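Recall the central idea of this unit: under ordinary conditions, the amino acid sequence of a chain determines the structure it adopts. In this exercise we apply that idea directly, starting from the sequence alone.
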Amino acid sequence: MPSTIGRLAARLPALALLLGLLCAPSAPAQDTDNLLPVTEAYKLSADAATPGVLKLHWTIAPDYYLYRGRMKFKGGDGVTLGEAQLPDGEKHHDEYLGDVETYHHGVDASIPYTVAAGTTRLAVSVQYQGCHEVEPKICYPPHTEKLDLPLPAAAGAPATPAAGNALGAALDRLGSNAGTTAAGAPLPAEQAFRFEALAQGPKQLLLRWTMPKGYYLYRDQTTLKLADAAGLTLHPAWPAGTAHHDEHYGDVTVYFDQVELPVTVDGDLAGRMRLALQASFQGCQDGGLCYPLMTRTVDIDLNGGAATSGTPAPELPPADLAGGPLQVSLLAALLLALGGGLVLNLMPCVLPVLSIKAVSVLESGENRATARRHALFYTAGVLSSFAALGLGILALRAAGHAMGWGSQLQQPLLVGALACVMLAVGLSMSGVVQFGASLGNTGANLANRSGPVGDFFTGVLAVVVASPCTAPFMGSALAYAFAAPMLSALLVFLALGVGLALPFLAVGFVPALARLLPKPGRWMETLKQVLAFPMYLTAAWLVWVLANQRGADAVGLVLVAMVLLAMTLWWFERSRSRGAPGKLMVAVLALATLVPLYLLAQVPPPSAAAVAEEGVVAYSPQKLAELRAAGTPVFVDMTADWCVTCKANEHAVLGTQAFRDLLQRTGAVYMKGDWTDVNPTISAFLQQYHSPGVPLYVVFPKNGGPGKQLSTVLTRSMIERALTEAAR
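Accordingly, the structure predicted from this sequence is:
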């Protein structure tokens, strides 16, 4: 396999050195005595003082270098690593490894990370490889160092959890640490923690804390209450934050930069037009002092006016509030979900599966009972799948995790399995194999023309392949579902399912619509064979997605699995009259098909950095902060290779010369984040803007104001208007 060859190639320099030492005369062999041990040639130091970011530095001895592409990082128990941020290296051609990038003298790496609840240590494995570039020219074998670091604690946290003692300790530290910390002079509390609140509806509030770089807010030290509002209660829905180990508070959750908190007001408002909200909270300067408990009181206009406490903030544009998860009512969210599900039927990711049902409905056109049965079982499959998806998202949300719309396609094993399913369905429609009733209970007869189980599982498959698509109207409905209470969220997902199944329900139960369908005939067999080709195209698209996730090794494995699957189906058709030996061979081939898929799940992401697109800056929080501090307007595009809506927007708008000219005219930077594979950094950005998944488009103005979230379906006029406003 290519991966085995790659591993052997990586060891060729070391093997060459070993053979040289064994075969060469004794005098040259002594030249290697002056070579440094690997840990002295490449001295690695680690800094975990910044919560959520591990910083590494290699000091490289003279005449030694490190390979950029041979660096690998793996988190230990409870530690999930994001994509490592590495500088570009010196490019040259290596006789063993081909075109490579190398580092001399020293190099820094920055790795974002998240930790599970209860994790107290930052365990990370760091693998690297380098060479000596003058005589004797040798390369070290890959070397791994295991880091075990304490998670960063809040420097100078309050002495005890009690509010009074915390205040005294913070005041003591304010006097003792002023002007002595590396973090710089602390800002006044009003500037360090800017607090604002506004009403998104009669019973929906949005609170926002904005902190400069290097400051953070404690979640569990924040309390909210209403003044003169008997009978009213507040229910905040805190977003996921950064896990942090505090020397006094223990394991806590903190927020950096900015946090938005949706708050539901329960109780009878009795015609109230305003609410007086009192917020008490505490935060720290990273590496500096911790502030005493702060209390701010704001007067909120329930008609939508914003209230700000602290340094005045720029007025929030109405479009900026579109990212709020509960800015629509349940009824509006249900209607949007119904419309979005209906439009999903027209999306290219769903049409191949609908071709299966088109054949079924046409063939049952003369039998109304059969048509109704088709519609009901297909709808049952769609609704069951949406309900399962909704319950899974709610369970993950309750556990403190996040799952985005379509994010299941971040799993290479699922992508490979779906490619095989699409191939099997296409082969069935092409007539290579006919699934009989004996396979109905296994779900293999997705294309069976009469089986209710086939109708049900066609509905399931329709939901699975619909997830990479985002139809108009779906964005607000999904954002509502990802933040709403359990029952409301489930209703929204079921409304999406009803919209997706509605065309077949209408054909099955409205005779006038059914009469518009053509009558069955011999032409149906030809149509069914023609409709197999969209299945093959979908399988090819999924293999392309897999190539971007896991590289050539993964593509090779899934192609082997597809060939074995085709052989299995071919032999299955030939073995119908061959008795037990033929069926045994089918079972053996089917098991063989699973082996490449099992190996596919073990393939790691490619270690080499992706080639940057011309005129595009890769997303990172640090780079975005730098550009905003420099007064540069930024257009952030969160996308994924499996997101069909993203690709449609790129083809129609973002990949055009007109868009590139617009960027040049406005001085804006195009920043792109790739969510094709799991990426905690991008997941955090999506959560910050309450986005259920990709695409997500945010325009940041040059004046430093809040980002403006755009629609998931872009137009040229929309982009031009947003960037022109951002550049003013």
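The CA atoms of residues 379 and 501 lie 5 Å apart.
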